[in-house]
Design a protein that fits this description.
Three copies of one chain form a homotrimer. The first copy, chain A, is an alpha+beta fold and 148 residues long. Helix content of chain A is 22%, strand content 29%. Chain A has a six-stranded mixed beta sheet with strand order 1-2-3-6-4-5, with helices on one face.
């Protein structure tokens, strides 16, 4: 078994680089075990490459950014959204659901996803007041399918 | 690896059929990989085959329905609650926990579960105000064990 | 495939032993399948071997205890925190995050973790008012690596 942290520094900063204190988690973990690769992507929000929250007050733009940040993390391991089998979606207020879902539908259509991932969506306040959405994802594929 | 969406239309509607807008997720995802089958079941609530919330205001009846909806999804892939290894349970208000847990205990006894699944339970508002409980589940088994 | 409940009764009680009513989940589930071992550890809080909440009002002490309870569960299966690939962390109030994260950083340094697990952290009220933090964890390793 091999295990490594995932990085997409051109899209979002390393949690460990937050100032004044590092936040102790990886943006994602890649596990290679017995021919299977699992990507466990941490809760991902509308954060940029410097660790700043972006698109304050705009649920649609934050949702796009969260999906794109996860896309960058997937691509860093040679994967795509087609490999995602489940997401967990946290919304700061459930009233954002229609707009969140609208963007998700557009994003998945753009990516050509079929079948759609399993998903759970609940309301939860997030690590910063200005963040309106956070998405966690699991991808799984046979290791032969992608170059590492 | 094979991957497919899970369906149990006689128990609960397809999320993609919600009107006026589809909700972009599958009720569950089946993954077959290297002799192992994983069923990732989406957050499942007391929703019926037409997508209506049922048993408004009744935590016990909603809990039964959520467990039974998951049972229908499992059965659609030849699995049972014996294959479930973990649940995540969201309650709209934590004061519902005793009644939720009472039904869970009865349901698990009825199904003859031993060992009991791992579980995490927290309070969270759900996608509709009238929904009091939502349950997510993971099942895993060797592919030879069940006919597909 | 083999499946068994995890126990660490010297650290935290069995959920099934709660009075007046059992809580119907295992502290964790061990799955051995095709040479891979997966440990799914249930949401774990600052609870002691008698099932009592401890360190009321003290987020740092509660965080230490939750990490140590999970450590005890891992050790019961011959595993360590090095095998943990993801956590999900629930804080009763997000204002506890800096202190929670400080303890987490210390704990992970003490354990010598590198890479750090993937993680999602959100705000959620927990099963008892006095509990301020709850942590869920997944560990994965090749079965040959550890004696059962």
């Amino acid at each position: 078994m091999k295990k490594k942290a995932m990085h997409a520094p051109e899209a979002l900063n390393e949690a460990y680089d937050y100032k004044p204190r590092p936040s102790s988690f990886s943006r994602g973990m890649r596990i290679d075990i017995r021919g299977v690769t699992i990507l466990l992507i941490s809760g991902t929000a509308s954060v940029d490459e410097r660790g700043q929250s972006i698109h304050e007050g705009d649920i649609k733009a934050q949702t796009w950014r969260a999906f794109r940040n996860i896309k960058a993390l997937l691509e860093s391991e040679g994967a795509t959204w087609h490999d995602v089998v489940r997401t967990t979606c946290y919304l700061k207020e459930m009233r954002y659901y229609p707009e969140f879902n609208e963007v998700r539908t557009q994003f998945y259509e753009q990516e050509g996803l079929d079948p759609l991932p399993a998903s759970t969506g609940v309301q939860a306040h997030l690590c910063r007041e200005e963040l309106l959405v956070e998405i966690e994802a699991i991808a799984i594929f046979e290791s032969d399918d992608k170059s590492e």
